[in-house]
Amino acid sequence: MATAHVGGYRPGLVDLKTGQISREIFVNEDIYAEEQERVFARAWLYVGHESQVPNPGDFFVSGMGEESVILTRDRAGQVRVFLNSCRHRGMKVCRYDEGNTTVFTCPYHGWSYGTDGRLVGVPYFREAYHSQLDRLQWGLVEVAQTCVHKGTVWATWDKDAPPFLEYLGDFARYLDQMFDSWDGSDGGTEILGGVQKWLVPSNWKFPAENFSGDSYHNISHRSVDMVGAGPSGSGRRDMPELNLARKLHIAIPDRGHQTTAYLLPREVEVPAGYQHSPVVSDYFKKCEEARRQQRGDWGRLITLVGEVFPSMAFLARQPRTIAVWHPRGPHQTEVWRWFLVDKNAPQDVKNFLRDYYIRYSGPAGMTEQDDMENWGYAHKASRGTIARRYSYSYEQGMGTEVDNYEWEGFSLPGSVTDLTQAKSSEHNLRNLYRRWAEFMEASDWDELASWRRAQRAAAE
Ligand code: FES
Ligand SMILES: [Fe+2]
Description:
By secondary structure, the chain is an alpha+beta fold. The protein has helices spanning about 25, 30-40, 165-170, 170-180, 205-215, 220-225, 280-295, 345-360, 370-380, 420, 425-440, 445-450, 450-460, and strands at about 15, 20, 45-50, 60-65, 65-75, 80-85, 100, 105, 110-115, 120, 145-150, 150-155, 190, 195-200, 245-250, 255-265, 300-310, 310-315, 320-325, 335-340, 390-395, 405, 410, 415-420. It folds into two domains: about 45-145, Rieske Iron-sulfur Protein (3-layer Sandwich), CATH 2.102.10; about 170-460, Naphthalene 1,2-dioxygenase Alpha Subunit, Chain A, domain 1. The strands form six sheets. Strands 13, 14, 15, 16, 17, 18, 19, 20 and 24 form a nine-stranded antiparallel beta sheet that branches. A four-stranded antiparallel beta sheet has the order 6-5-4-7, with no helix packed on it. Strand 17 and strand 18 (about 310-315) form a beta hairpin. Fe (ii) ion binds near residues 217, 220, 221 and 367.
């Protein structure tokens, strides 16, 4: 039995040798405060999609960890991300969810900022400040780095963080399965409809581990499978061809990203789905043919679900969606969900998908409210003085992952567990928490970017 822990993080709370993780990392307030500093202030975080700010002056208010941020396109057309807090007394400068503006005017005393963040207006600048205030020094706080990757916008507060693509490492190949156009064009993607936002009464790591690859929780969704809410109308993922595929957990060990994917045999066509709507079914059939032609072996890989460390998750098939787990204290998470669609998809298809996505996902979606019930009750039942003495078990499938997984001549980057026989493994979850512990323990990015040390050592 683990002893009760008072105080903040310490090594050993995540013990991957025994496969045990202390409940403290979910419920402890000191650890929560530390992870804001050590994880959320240093990692790359998903902010939004370029299609939300197509024109100069467009803005979308997003979040990074606990901070409110403004994603905007400045007059020169550049995508920028600013802390949504006035430099004078901290007021939330922009209180709208989205819109278009030439300046952000603070509602408290009226300082105003350009879309490039510069302080451009100070009431009584001459009279009250005697023209002495150095306006150049008092612009909005900007993130240290921004990256637009295939339409998605990412940012970090840490100037020492590696560039975003290096942060992704080999995971980019898996993630791009979702971000690249599916129809074979280079039209890109756009956000379908608005962003869903809701609160869940659990620590943010419950949804993060669920999307990292909790292949074990099918019982949670049994009721949905019974009523048949899937794209074909008779099951959540009713694609018999998948029975011929390898089901894989894939983790990028030194980065903390992970996904669950199917790898289809060469001779099997990818099923189109949505058989009840011929227009949509035909559209996806064409998309799948294009994917196969353009992507070679990667076209046989169907990425289902995954997590970019720490708090961005995705479903890469149907629905095709991005989620962010915004921490709101140790005991609460604000979930935001974006839905993606190919920009060039016919309007009929977009309309159909919007209805289907809302039915499937989100606070009223048939497969998400059941998950949330589990996270909320699990969290609550773990908070007590007695409960938190007992670690959780993450022992499933320990040691079964391989580094150079290959099937039918296609070798996949990352550390892979083949679930085809085993059905489930907690390999991806361990990968998430290994990285989380590294962030909690490392003093800077030099330590966190272990792959650079390995490269340097190899070069010497
Ligand atoms: S807080 Fe914004 S102008 Fe005073
Ligand atoms: Fe689920």
